[in-house]
Amino acid sequence: QVQLQESGPGLVKPSETLSLTCSVSGSSVSVSQYYWSWLRQSPGKRLEWIGYVYYNGDTSYNPSLKSRITLSVDTSKNQFSLKVRSVTEADTAVYYCARAIVGAKRLDFWGHGTRVAVSS
Amino acid sequence: DIRMTQSPSSLSASVGDRVTITCRASQDIDNSLAWYQQKPGKGPRLLLFGASRLQSGVPSRFSGTGSGTDYTLTISNLQPEDFATYFCHQYYSAPQTFGQGSNVEIK
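ok -> structure tokens follow
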């Protein structure tokens, strides 16, 4: 069974960097069939796609966030990560990691989500 | 960005009812549409993709139709475990975008 689990601090101060990791079990981040994705949902808003990272490190980012985010993959740990720089309160959200199918990009497995608050 | 407009935002239904949720895209998305179910405290679950293709393990009471800009999720014979939030997702073009969600509540 494929499982994804987000981890990281639940509270980040404004202007700092938010760092999250997604640990994957039951699937390998090293194979070419999947994109490894991050999404978020801010209070009262719809889901927002952040971007994805491929097994070889290639990335695709949402243009609205591109200047502040970095996605990376660690094949040795079967994990992938998200960094968001210069956070503001608008980055307060539940962050999800998910697996997407290459070609179709549907998101077939998701983590449970981790709540991150940006506050001083 | 492609705007996804989902309706209704919430509805009340009874066990055994037939429920329909619609999603309209701001441009043709060529059936590149998925539907998800989400329950509180859990990650979303993929129900359908390609507008009408059932994900493995999903009960056949879930079905999807549509083309172009207009898509529909139908839940036939609503079961107690189906009370949840449902949302659509277009993956036709980047950035991928989502509907605002439809909360199916017990009447």
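The first strand of chain B starts at residue 4 and ends at 7.
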